[in-house]
Every structure is written in structure tokens, then in C-alpha cells.
């Protein structure tokens, strides 16, 4: 079967190749699914267009995927063929660290994500193995997809759960507060929706000039009360003006990761305000962070989700309270993966769904 793989050692960026890989073998505790939908994520994008020159197989990519169970090992009793499932993409955890003990499996220092971690096989292919080892330790490593949710919506549950945990479980947002969200990708757009569900009054989306093409419009459709163009506007002044002044912003959510977003977030939130940082940047912070102390701001570093996030996000999706379809801008065969990545890179796409088309 064909697969989109990344070559090179774990720390290397880049080197995607479309290659032949063997079909997975189902051992006694494993589950094999036929992948029905896999989404391109920002975490895949950072490797796109980079050549590291390595010929060493890294992983089959694709950590946001759903599919149908086509085979179960003889020891598997909880799952059967024909069930529609979505993976939370955990492939290995230790089971004994403080994070695992509290059910925060995705924060396990030993965790390996299917489609991300070195040596793993993710969803950008035809068949994918859910290792028996993970299901024994972490029973919610896969979830059955309820009726009313289709495969492509389920494949995008990863960023929904991520935004859900960031705002609903990590921040102390109260109904009636205002929220500013930096970054117009799926995490930002799902954060808009969660903030709306939680009763935020003003939900301001901050993006850049190239977000005027597609993403600002979708942000408004999904609940952003205003959008601010950071390429043209004074972001701090404009957000405070829209929300009602200096003391009006209790929560900023950074889904962008650029240092400028963190700087502006620190400047705009009120005293005792909160900043949840989801996005990633790779440059050292080049500004004073004294305001964190002066204004007693809490900066909450956020990663991933837990089973509570999944249970509740699935319920919200099933109830129609979270919308995915306006964000799925493109659907194509896996063989066209390069076009999908290009559309993501130039921000014409928000979510691209790839389906296997190679036999
Ligand atoms: Zn992702
Ligand atoms: Zn652990």
C-alpha cells in the first residue's frame, strides 16, 4: 500500500516521500482499521517543503484520522470489525508516570503519537494498526464514532479536543467575559467555537493580511464577533477598544505561537488575566516579560487533551454545537497530498481531508 512518510531522524525537519509500505500485521491484541479520512495538521506543515537529505525511514504521517475496524486480534473483546472509530493518536505511553496516573496520557514524557512519533504508522495510508499495547493501558485511545458524525468530522476531533481542553479545562473563563484568540488555523477557529459555547461576549480573532482571503470570513461564521488584522491594525489598542477598555480582556488564547502574539497578549490582558498558549514558535522570546509579574498574569502552557475532552467534544459535535464542515475547505485523494499541503501553506485551505485513492 502507498503511504506518505517522513524521512530522517526524530529531530530532523522535513523530507516527505510518497512510498510503498507493507500492510500492518494484526497481532493478538491489535486492531487494524481501514483509514477513511485523514486531515493535514499544522504539525505536518512544519515539515513540508524541507529536505533533510536523509534516507532513513521516520514515520508514516497523519495523526488526525478515522476509519473502520477491519480486523481485531484474538484477545480483543471490546471492539469488533465494522465499528467506526477515531484514534486519539496515542501509540505508546508508560502507564506509570504522574501524567499517566491522572489519565493525562498525552502528556506522558514517554508518549509516542501515531503519525507523529519516530517509527510509527499513522493515517496517511490505507490501513493503520492501533497497537494492543496502548489499548490495554489507555482504553480511550480510540473512540467509537456515534451516528450523525461522519468520518471526516471525526478525523478533525484532535484539534477540537485540544481547543476544548485549553479553554474549558485549563482557563477559568466565565460567561460574560471577553476572549481574544490569536491564530486563524483550526485550533483558533475551534477556540472561537468553544469560547462561544462557554458564553464569552466579545470573541475577537486576531490574524494577518493573508487571513482576509478565507479564514476571517469563516471565523465570523463560526462565532467571532470581530476580526483584527495584525498586519494593518494596532492589535492591542484595537482589541481593548472592541472589548471595552484597558481592563476588559480576561483571557487571551495564543494559537499562533509567534513571539509577537505572546507579547501582544501580555500587553492586552487585564491584571489577573490569563493567557493560554497552544501555538508553537521556535525563536527565543526577545522581549521583557516583567508585565507577567506586574499584572499578575497567569500564562498557562497547554498541550493536547484527555478523555474528558474527547467525551465532551464528541457530544458537542454530535449535538451540532461545534461545526467542522465550514472548516473542511478541500477534499482530495492521498496521491494529491502535495497539492493539499500547498493549499494549507498559502492559507487557501483551513482543513484538507485526504482519502486513500491508490489501488
Ligand atoms: Zn494535529
Ligand atoms: Zn506516562
Number of domains: 2
Total DSSP E strands: 18
Quote the CATH topology of the largest domain. Quinone Oxidoreductase, Chain A, domain 1
| Average residue-wise pLDDT | 96
Percentage of residues assigned to helices: 25-40%
What is the distance, rounded to the nearest whole angstrom, between the alpha carbons of the first and last residues? Answer: 8 Å
Instruction: Name the CATH architecture of the largest domain.
Output: Alpha-Beta Complex
Shape: globular
**Proportion of residues in β-strands:** 15-25%
Q: What report would you give on this structure?
A:
The chain has 359 residues and is α/β, with parallel strands linked by helices. The chain has two domains: 2-156 and 324-355, Medium-chain alcohol dehydrogenases, catalytic domain (Quinone Oxidoreductase, Chain A, domain 1, Alpha-Beta Complex); 160-301, Rossmann fold (3-Layer(aba) Sandwich). The protein is 27% helix and 24% strand. It contains twelve helices and 18 strands. The chain has helices at 42-45, 98-101, 132-137, 151-155, 157-170, 186-197, 215-222, 235-243, 259-268, 290-294, 307-318, 337-345, and strands at 2-7, 16-20, 31-39, 57-60, 64-72, 84-87, 90-92, 112-113, 127-130, 142-144, 179-182, 203-207, 226-229, 251-254, 274-277, 298-301, 328-333, 351-355. Helix 5 (157-170) packs across helix 6 (186-197), helix 5 (157-170) crosses helix 11 and helix 8 (235-243) packs across helix 9 (259-268). One zinc ion (ZN) binds at residues 41, 43, 63-64, 158-159.
